[in-house]
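May I ask for a protein sequence together with how it folds?
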Amino acid sequence: MKIIALDFDGVLCNSVEEMAVTSFNTAQKLFPHIIMPAVRSADYIKDFSTLRPVIKFGFEGVMLCLLIINNTEHCDILDNFTGLAQDLRKELGIQNEILEKKFSHERDNFITDETTQWLDLHTYYPGTISTLRELQKLDIPLFIITTKEKRFVCRLLQSQDLHVSENCIFGMDEGKKIDILQQLTAREKFQNGTFYFIEDRLKTLVEVSENKCLNSIKLFLANWGYNTENQRKTAENHSRISLISLSDFNQMRFISEKQH
């Protein structure tokens, strides 16, 4: 039996523009004392897209937004986003929990007030939705494991007329990805199966590769997702991680070929 687990943002869906807009709107409301541009510029969206690989959770986009507005060097953000964001939060006197709550609230308002625009800001990597439908036809167990809230994932999948059971979608409130993978691999019906995990965040894959309980999982870094050239090179040289292209994913080669 083959079992497939996929990340959502950066593997199936490109949500970078929506995240950039929601982050900007959240920042404006949270920090009115900071001079924010009256109109989001095309350069801001471009910079946010370039720097998107540093973000693990959506609400971190608020800090990225402020760093971009403050003209922080891209190389500094790529090298030390966590430290820069932490310093900025301390300076502003705000905790991650508040950022997360405000960001989620802003996204909810966006969906309620401008549903069509919110949906239109999401695009899907070419062929991925069709590939998911094909996998479902093959009756291959399919799971989505994401740091996005489940309700947003469900809304987006519904917009594509793609039906994935909510029991097969694990969002940010349901634990770390590594823990969810352990829970899934421990299920009795999957004991003799082969797990495939496709993710666009190298650090997550490395953490999984270092967990002895997950030695049997085949790990893939999506080269079309939110990662950098250096991260892709690291994946190519990693003993447990394979680099996968969008073409290989859509043609489902990854479930018929051995990892290097």
In short: Residues 74-92 form the longest helix (19 residues). DSSP finds twelve helices and eight strands in the chain. The first strand starts at residue 2 and ends at 6.
